[in-house]
Amino acid sequence: MSIDALLSWTLFIPLLAVVGIVVFGRNENLREASSLIAAAVLFGLVYTLFGHFQGGAEIAVSWIEILPGLDIAFKVETTGMVFALIASSLWFVTVLYAIGYMRGHSEQNQTRFYACFAVAISAVMGIAFAENLFTLFVFYEVLSLCTYPLVTHAGNDKAKQGGRIYLGILLGTSIALFLPAIIATWMLSGTLSFTPGGVFDSPVSPTMLSVLLVLFAFGIGKAALMPFHRWLPAAMVAPTPVSALLHAVAVVKAGVFSVVKVVVFIFGIDTVAELPITPFLVYLAGASILLASLVAMRQDNFKSRLAYSTVSQLGYITLGAFLASQAAIAGSVLHITMHAFGKITLFFCAGAVYVAHHKSQISELDGMGRVMPVTFIAFTLAALSIIGLPPLGGVWSKWFLMLGALDSGYLIMLAVLSISSLLNIVYLLEIPARAFLRPAPAGAQVQEARRSSVIAMVITTVMCIALFAYGGDLYEFIRSARLA
Q1: Which of 26, 169, 250, 382 has the fewest CB within 10 Å, making it most exposed?
Q2: pLDDT of amino acid 207
């Protein structure tokens, strides 16, 4: 099999998993084995592509030409490879966690859950390896549609309302803003292919480019840039494995990844740095970071606090993109990675507490660290990574984002990032402080979540530590990309 064919199989393997999931729907062991095997195979394929790509191979494939110069096509490049490695590795871990969660909570419609999850991973592979904006847009929309049944999984009125907000904002921003921006780019440049340095070779006025950049920034609603962020807290009505998918594996990461791709490969970082609208977008991203952190501090619901934390952390990535320097872009891609493993661990912990002890409010967690020590040790370490303290991986992404702010001359963003980290300490470390420093409930005994869920938490926590040790290697790989 050729290397280019392997690229296509990264999209087909999750779809083959759907067949196995549906066929074995009545046998939960075989159904879940179909997901785990497919996830392992997918990661193996992506890692194989990574090895060939590191060796200098050009890996690309075109499926179908819609119009001359407009086709569904895929190509491996550095930022997409990082995103694909994250999503493929976390699919396996999330399924492992979901086995314990879904069984422990006796969730209904589990076959539909695993099937939609697999389709979502296929869409993510399409986004990660998209060769052009048209391909990215197609799979971006598929991701929105296939995750809607996951958000509304519970089937009650609250879930349906959350699903309406979720799909309404994501489809609304795509149709009203993202699609017109793509059409305008095609008309102005004659191409939608992702090109190092940007696609606007012919003179285009800074005003027009500024309008386009705003359309992209708000049209890519999955990046949750304020004020188009409400879908993210609304989607927290979904089961915790879905929240993990939304926040760490697929949806929000697809959004901020798309923003980075547009800035680097459609506009070019040199062009973005000179546009008159860029300071506005930089300050808007900074405001999103701080405002979402302040809202997170006021949330007593465990998952809601983590949801607003995600809105804030996504602001870090969009900020890095709009700072438009080599260090800032590297910091954004690093933060996609560091946040993925840190935030998925936090959600795993929240779900474990809910399934094992039916507690969903932070005010109910007093002494729970003595009842669920593994869970809250994992939470503490992942929180420290999100905050950006060594020896956890999150320190590297924040470091390079700060360097990017210095390179771009936005010294005030150093203050924003510093204040945000302090706010992270307040709203994240309150949880393990309650869990470990307050008395345990009377008569409470040690009771963790199901074994598969605990194993998943331990894996992602270990990765938070490993990413500190290998952060330099990841940075060197990202720096090797042609960004200008």
Answers
A1: 26
A2: 92
pLDDT for 215-272, tens place per residue? 999 999 888 888 888 888 887 777 777 777 776 778 888 999 999 999 999 999 999 9
| pLDDT tens-digit series, residues 95-140 | 999 898 888 767 778 888 899 999 999 999 999 999 999 999 999 9
Q: Among 146, 180, 199, give the residue marking a domain's end.
A: 199
For residues 173 and 313, membership in a common domain is answered with no
The answer to whether 450 touches 104, Cβ cutoff 8 Å, is: yes
Q: Which of 143, 164, 199 is the last residue of a domain?
A: 199
Q: Is the dihedral of CA 476, 90, 335, 427 positive or negative?
A: negative
Cis amide linkage into residue 206, ω under 30° from 0: no
In a domain, 59, yes or no: yes
Q: How far apart are the first and last CA of the chain?
A: 33
